[in-house]
Write a structure and sequence with these properties.
Blueprint lengths: L4 H4 L4 H13 L6 H4 L2 H19 L18 H29 L9 E7 L5 H11 L11 E8 L2 H17 L5 E6 L16 E7 L9 H15 E11 L3 H19 L7 E4 L19 E4 L4 H10 L5 E10 L5 H4 L11 E4 L4 E3 L2 E8 L2 E7 L12 E3 L2 E3 L6 E5 L2 E4 L2 E4 L9
Parallel strand pairs: 1-2, 1-4, 2-3, 4-5, 12-15
Antiparallel strand pairs: 5-8, 6-8, 7-8, 9-11, 9-13, 10-11, 11-12, 13-16, 14-15, 16-17
Length: 429
């Protein structure tokens, strides 16, 4: 995934001010002066960052479904730690996915407003991320309607109230006339999420939520498809972001496979993956038991965040995550993401690993219609592709048991757009 510079530098002093005033308003923080005290941070924030980090990284013995807010002896400080440390990173992850859609040319239908739902909203990290992504300069051609009506579903009412205050401050700062309706409820796969009379949504998002559900990928896929049949518009978009940890990522990939398998059996319901996979091909990462698929993005951490990282012994300079963007739209992916047009599906490949130098070649993993494969290419040094780049019009040579050579490629799609490339033939080098 390619991230514009303006997004990597999204966090401003105004955002920190809004976060601190939100915490003070909800009586989680006594004053801004307290926040700038190392003693306060070490006693009231850092231990809870470590606590949450252990839970989210599965280092503790607690079950993934444990309600960590109620299970804590000090849920107020736990919520404060989450808003200060985990929310900004999750916000950024969603903003990156949203920016990726924009760079691939996705356009919303012309209408006055959109209806959106955030499942397992917490403090509304996904909502915040979309607001931030829409406010950066690269989004000037965004087709998102001005009005966006959010519905949040969350089991922790206090965190949801905290998130609503924060997001309303963010909306005001970014001139977004968006609204939020809060639904205090827990996901129960035996019950529908909404009354059948509830209007369908155009956008359905969740961030670091599905991994907390202990049901099988197959049961979860069946449940969500049932909800989307009724409550996702026919050109609607689903964005799901999950952890990059091997176990959770592989479970997420199994969920993707279960979704597509069930869709194949449906006659009146369509669903296709549009990114990071450029179609509904079988997942190559699941072919090997030790493999998994994830994205990594980098950001400029604000000074306070660096300080919290240092005090807690963490380093969140790089943010890994797994994600899927799906749509009910039946059009070919080239029409949904017009930046991919003029290339056949079997000649589009995304780099899903960094590039490594091997002699004078660059070696990396590509993912396309045929799955995941190791490949080599020889380009000018300044043209070496990186993770997230999309190769358009590729011709590959060789077998899968050894790195395949990229014989030709029409262009490389990165954050700056499409760029024609000239390969250096191996035999002439």
């Amino acid at each position: 995934m390619k991230v514009p510079i303006s997004l990597t530098e999204y966090f401003s002093a105004d955002l920190l001010q809004a976060m601190l005033s939100t915490l003070i308003e909800h009586e989680l923080l006594e004053s801004e002066e307290a926040f700038h005290s190392n003693r306060f941070l070490n006693r009231s924030v850092v231990p809870h960052i470590k606590n949450l980090s252990e839970r989210f990284n599965r280092l503790s013995d607690q079950k993934v479904s444990d309600h960590y807010w109620k299970g804590s002896s000090n849920p107020q400080n736990l919520r404060m730690a989450y808003l200060l440390h985990f929310m900004p990173a999750n916000l950024y992850r969603m903003a990156c996915v949203w920016t990726e859609l924009n760079r691939l040319g996705f356009q919303w239908p012309k209408q006055n407003q959109l209806r959106a739902v955030e499942l397992g909203a917490g403090p509304g990290s996904a909502t915040s991320g979309i607001a931030i992504a829409e406010s950066i300069s690269e989004s000037k051609n965004s087709s998102l309607p001005e009005q966006l009506k959010w519905t949040w579903i969350e089991r922790d009412s206090q965190m949801m109230k905290l998130g609503q205050t924060w997001n309303q401050k963010l909306f005001q700062m970014k001139n977004k006339p968006w609204t939020i309706q809060k639904n205090h409820q827990k996901l129960d796969l035996s019950q529908p999420l909404f009354d059948r009379k509830t209007p369908a949504f155009d956008l359905w998002v969740s961030s670091y939520f599905l991994n907390e559900i202990e049901d099988t990928p197959e049961d979860l896929a069946q449940y969500l498809i049932a909800q989307w049949k009724t409550h996702l518009n026919k050109n609607g978009i689903v964005i799901l972001i999950e952890p990059a940890l091997k176990k959770e990522s592989r479970k997420f990939l199994s969920f993707r496979e279960a979704l597509l398998k069930q869709v194949e059996q449906e006659r009146k319901f369509s669903l296709q993956v549009i990114t990071p996979c450029l179609g509904n091909q079988k997942c190559g990462a699941l072919m090997e038991p030790e493999d998994w698929c994830h994205e990594v993005v980098r950001w400029w951490r604000p000074d306070y965040y660096k300080k919290l990282d240092q005090l807690s012994g963490l380093n969140r300079k790089d943010l890994p995550f797994s994600y899927l963007v799906l749509t009910r739209d039946r059009r070919p992916i080239e029409d949904i993401l017009p930046t991919l047009s003029n290339t056949s599906s079997n000649k589009r490949h995304r780099l899903v690993s960094p590039s490594y130098a091997t002699g004078r070649d660059s070696e990396f993993y590509l993912c396309g219609q045929e799955g995941k494969t190791k490949a080599q290419i020889r380009l000018q040094k300044e043209e070496v592709p990186t993770r997230g780049d999309i190769l358009l019009g590729t011709e590959l040579e060789g077998m899968d048991h050894r790195p395949r050579r990229v014989l030709s490629v029409d262009s490389v799609l990165n954050i700056e757009g499409k760029h024609p490339v000239q390969l250096i033939p191996k035999r002439n080098a």
